[in-house]
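Reminder to self: tokens first, then the designed residues, so the page reads top to bottom the way the pipeline ran.
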């Protein structure tokens, strides 16, 4: 689903906006399927996710041993408030 959002967004965006818009499109699709609350601010959430990825890559580098874990933990924390209880 994220790949389709990236492809669709690429037509309308360029540069640094692409990742943010692609994540927002993906999160909107998740909203439509009820996996993210309807009132969640997906644009802000997308910005936070992209900003987290940029920060981790720039400060730790792509080979950092804890990169995936930090991204997973941060993503989990960010989406915890916008996903339905299961």
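Designed residues (86 positions):
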């Amino acid at each position: 689903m994220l790949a389709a959002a990236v492809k669709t967004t690429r037509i309308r965006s360029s540069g640094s906006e692409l990742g943010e818009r692609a994540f927002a499109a993906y999160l909107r699709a998740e909203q439509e399927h009820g996996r993210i609350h309807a009132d969640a601010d997906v644009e802000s959430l997308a910005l936070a996710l992209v900003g987290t990825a940029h920060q981790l890559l720039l400060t730790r580098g792509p080979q950092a041993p804890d990169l995936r874990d930090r991204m997973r933990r941060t993503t989990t924390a960010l989406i915890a408030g916008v996903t339905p209880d299961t």
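Residues 30 and 52 are 20 Å apart (CA to CA).
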